[in-house]
Queue: 2 jobs
Job 1
Amino acid sequence: MEKQLMEQEIQQSNVSLNLYDTKAARIEDQLRFCSDQIQKLGDNKNQSSVCLENAQRRLSDIRPSSQQVRDTVGEVQSKITSSRVTCMELEVELDKERFDKKKVEEDLEVAKRNLSRLKAQDEDSSVTDKLQQELGEYREIVKCSICRDRTKEVIFYCNLSYLIKFVKPQLVLESINDGMWLSLS
């Protein structure tokens, strides 16, 4: 029995040994995998370092031109702002000119209406002037031929007219009887 026990112990030891060998093989595989990973990470680190150096060189090359671009953008923005202000000022000026033009057009329309009214009045006034002239002529006709002052009181058929004070009373009576004169008074 001792032999059996020993055999069992040996068997258990062999099983344990196999188990430990398997575990050792696994650990070795894991160690190889980790070593590979470490080597890959090292390679990646080197590549990343090279890329980082290249990127830093490009960045240092780009920085001055980037600053120039920023300055240019600032100048362009200030020009845009001043252009907008100028554009707004021009729009205000255009609105003022449109308003002034509209006002001038309205004033012109008023002037045209006034001109039409004045022409109508002028036509009326020319008629009035003609009538005034005729009235003056008639007044001239009825003024005394001697004193040229007062309105005539007596008009003879021969188109002579005088104030009654200038005509002899005898002549008046004869003329009345003959029907040769007209009295305006």
Job 2
Amino acid sequence: MVGTATMTATDSDTAMAREKREETAAEPATEVVEFMLGAERCAIDIDAVDSIVEPKQITRVPRAPEAVEGVMDLRGETTAVVDPTLFLAIENDGTAANILVLDRDGDKQKIGIRVGSVEEVTSYPPAQIDRNGDLAGIQTSAIEADLVQGVLRKHLGEGDEDGVPEDISLVLWLDIARLIDAISTDGPGV
């Protein structure tokens, strides 16, 4: 499980950060919606989100995968509500206050994922993104199941003269397409 981590930059971190900034200077920033799942800070691409709503009455669907909490009526459309914590080895603390309604062209109905709180919409330059190929040392079920695009390094506090921050918080960048596919094909409780 990827938790919130804090680390101190070293000289090698500074050199690696500078090198990565130079390599990726031409790449555009990645825009995401950050939210809490239990005690974990996660994110999905902003383009994947249609809206953020408060949960309404959810009706359980018989024989649905365990991760599918049920369906709710959202502006006259049936919307399936999914709990992603079952796939990410994140403890569901029961504080899910929002539903991120997804904007996916191929879906037969709207899908919403239950999240604790929506923290912010932000962007990350490529130098702050570790993609799956760079994550060999991080042991989580989500990374092993290939349900994440990478880990975002959220800079906290002021940076030094090279722009390297004193503290970094890790944000799990979810691959929402793979997560929804996992729920619909071989999810827990199927």
